[in-house]
Amino acid sequence: MSLFWRIFAMNASLLVIAALLLLSPWITVSSPVLLKEAVVVAVGVLAMLLANALVLHRALAPLQRLSHRMAQADLSAPGIRAEAAGPAEMVQLVRTFNTMLDRLENERATSSARVAAAQEAERQHLARELHDEVGQALTAVLLQLKWLADQAPTRLRKDLRGAQETTRESLDELRRIARRLRPGVLEDLGLASALRALAADFARVGFTVVHHLDHKLPTLPQEVELAIYRVAQEALSNAARHASAARVDLELRHTSSEAVELVIRDDGRGCHSASEGSGIRGMRERALLIGARLSIEATSRGGTSVQLWVPVPGKAE
Question: Quick one: DSSP state of residue 2?
Fold first, then answer.
């Protein structure tokens, strides 16, 4: 029976019962109304209201459950579905809602994958431009400064040596930026070596990076390794820019549950901001793309802990 006819039948039954009771010889209403008669009518009305409320609550409970699931639905945390139960209309409504969530999550995953691919292509393009164009230009300037310093009078030689050193430092920084944009070591030497090089780069900005990297990692697809690397890169960037951290612990391990886990903890100010920036949203997007779980929370010592749980393809889940 449909929800409409169930509610109609319930209300009609109550009205028929009330009419029969009023027409029966057991209940009479005189004029003026006696106290006993008023009590009987009041009790009858109250009983009808209670019965109506109970039946409506039971009939509309599936709608309440669906409303609760709809409030919990979040495309950044996929997998939440409503349970199809109750009358036929409710089952159909829940199935339609679940189908809509499936479509939205698939569309989000597809668009996120395209955005991530476009970002990586742009990163590689910028890295090549910095290395081939700007890097070569700075190298030429460095050689010219060296020649001028060798030929210049003694009183100018010190200043030229200083300019030469500044140019060399700029060239080194440019190369570090290019490596972050396009981590060639990730393709050549693997994830552990790439994270070690990343930790060494960030250690130069003023805080200590202590890494514990498991070298016996399972074979991971290239896109999964790149996602792990980018999450670690963004977490270290946040620690350097916003957390005022003095120490960062970076750990990559192969857990017993056939998964790879990345953990980055700092001793900075913690994640007190209510709104997430583009960097954290980017980490969540990359985690979704590879079916991983990302957790960002404050530690007991006031810092921030970033944990990425990545299932090994074909074994976990």
Answer: -
